[in-house]
Amino acid sequence: MNIDKKLVIIGGGPAGHSAATSAARRGIHVTLIEREILGGAAHLLDCVPSKTMISTGAAMSFTNSLSGMGLEEREAEVDVDALTSRIESIKSRLSTDVSSLLESQGVTIIRGSARITSVHAVHVDCADGSQIDLEADDILVCTGSRPRIPEWVHPDGDRILTTRDCYPPRIFPESVTIIGSGVTGVEFAHMFASFGSKVTLVVSRQQVLPGKDPEVAAVLEDSFLSRGVRLFKGARAIAIEKTELGVRVVCDDGRSSETTHAVLAIGSIPNTENLGLEEVGIALDGGYIPIDRHCESNVKHIYAAGDVSGKLPLSSVASMQGRKVAEQVVGGPKGPHRHLDYDKAASAIFTEPEIADVGLAEAEAFASGRKIRVTKVPFSSTAKALINNDPRGFVKIISDPATGEVLGGSIVGSHAAELISVIALAVTANLKVTDIEESLLVHPALAEALAEAAE
Ligand SMILES: Cc1cc2nc3c(=O)[nH]c(=O)nc-3n(C[C@H](O)[C@H](O)[C@H](O)COP(=O)(O)OP(=O)(O)OC[C@H]3O[C@@H](n4cnc5c(N)ncnc54)[C@H](O)[C@@H]3O)c2cc1C
Questions:
Q1: Ligand 1 pocket residue status of 182, Cβ below 6 Å
Q2: Residue 425, by phi and psi: left (phi above 0), alpha (psi -120 to 50) or beta?
């Protein structure tokens, strides 16, 4: 089926390539413009390289604790060159896969930098020096984001780093101060600690992971403290000075941390400059493009998805938004349909222990006065956790006491990011705790804790 409509997509990250393949499959003529690498910052700079390093760090921790598995202890050591080529090969494999998929769906890919010149036109400065003007029925902007750098920090790529300067790793810092204790900050603290760096984490509030379940944050804090990570709670970094050792991060409460390196992890800002957005009438909000439930901006036919939309900065959300845009440009959903509900997005934090959650949080329910039922089961009650020699963590399910409907949950422990899918499905499909409880699950498996928590 060919639909005589042209969709031009600016940015080939998760939002852009999902929208492209999904729209092309529906018969739309799709052109995608990417100025760097297909797969986006997610593959090149953020999600994939950080998770690759975290997974190597986890292998190292595992190897260094083999006696618990009945094996002789061995000291694993990092091979920086091998790790670098591992990261590079994963990145290029994923990018090639995206490119092949787009080509197989008939998407036209243009390498270059694009900007909107009118509601139905896009100009591209191509990588080969040429220029192209494209016509479009609809335009999707999904140009992603980049690390936020406050004016008092001057990253030099050597001692003062943004998260994007950390890989491929040239060396591993002997000691590092991480500024910021949100998801990225704690993941980097965990990552460097697993490779043996002495880590100090500057935590501006009284708990790491502000906004997350305090019980979950407490487990992570305990794990950090037991691994020698210093936590500067209630401290805001206000300056970074160069010293003989490396850097000194100065905090507003008078404390300071002197380490060989400092890493900035205080959020991101959207890539919405020089795209011609204001010129076509798009009203930005703090640099983000406000969107409606169909991901359409205030200007009809111009959509935004992914980090630029200011919703949840997650690859998974970006991809889903991209698919929703594709659905919308062919005239809206056909058949049964669910609007994107950002409150039901599952997310994970790849630390030690791993953390994942979805839907309503306990604290949120108490704050709103909503009656909930909370059931919590430790992994230590499952045979699989003992077999894996890792009985830490728990599963918590939050449900409606009157109807049994699953409203949310959190998981702390091995494979939390995989296991949360069960609760995420239940939350999205309005399933009841009995639906989980009555599922015939595998034994021995960590998922048995889910069934128990659902009882
Ligand atoms: C350290 C870190 C770790 C993360 N880990 C996770 C994780 O584990 N799980 C998760 O779900 N999310 C994770 N994220 C978030 C995730 O990376 C982003 O939410 C995701 O990349 C957003 O996708 P996107 O399509 O909006 O943008 P991007 O992936 O940033 O892609 C945007 C693309 O647009 C291109 N572009 C920009 N401007 C132009 C232009 N003018 N013309 C042409 N092309 C242009 C860029 O080159 C880029 O390739 C992490 C983020 C960080 C910082």
A1: no
A2: alpha
Which band of pLDDT confidence, cut at 50, 70 and 90, is reported for residue 131? very high
Please indicate whether residue 319, judged by its CB atom, sits closer than 6 Å to ligand 1.
Answer: no
Separation between Cα atoms, residue 320 and residue 19, nearest integer Å: 8
Residue nearest to atom 2 of ligand 1 (CA): 46
Look-up of token digits 């705790």: 433
pTM of the model: 0.95
Report how far ligand 1's centroid is from the alpha carbon of 442 (Å). 36
Reported as a single tens digit per residue, the pLDDT across 135-171 is 999 999 999 999 999 999 999 999 999 999 998 888 8
Q: Is 353-454 CATH 3.30.390.30? A: yes
> pLDDT (tens digit, 9 = 90+) per residue, 389-424?
999 999 999 999 999 999 999 999 999 999 999 999
Nearest-atom number in ligand 1 for the CA of 319 is 25
Q: In the chain, list all ranges with CATH 3.50.50.60.
A: 6-146+270-329, 160-266
- CATH for 160-266, among 3.50.50.60, 3.60.10.10, 3.10.350.10, 3.30.428.10? 3.50.50.60
Conformational region of residue 209, where left means phi above 0, alpha means psi within -120 to 50, and beta covers everything else: left
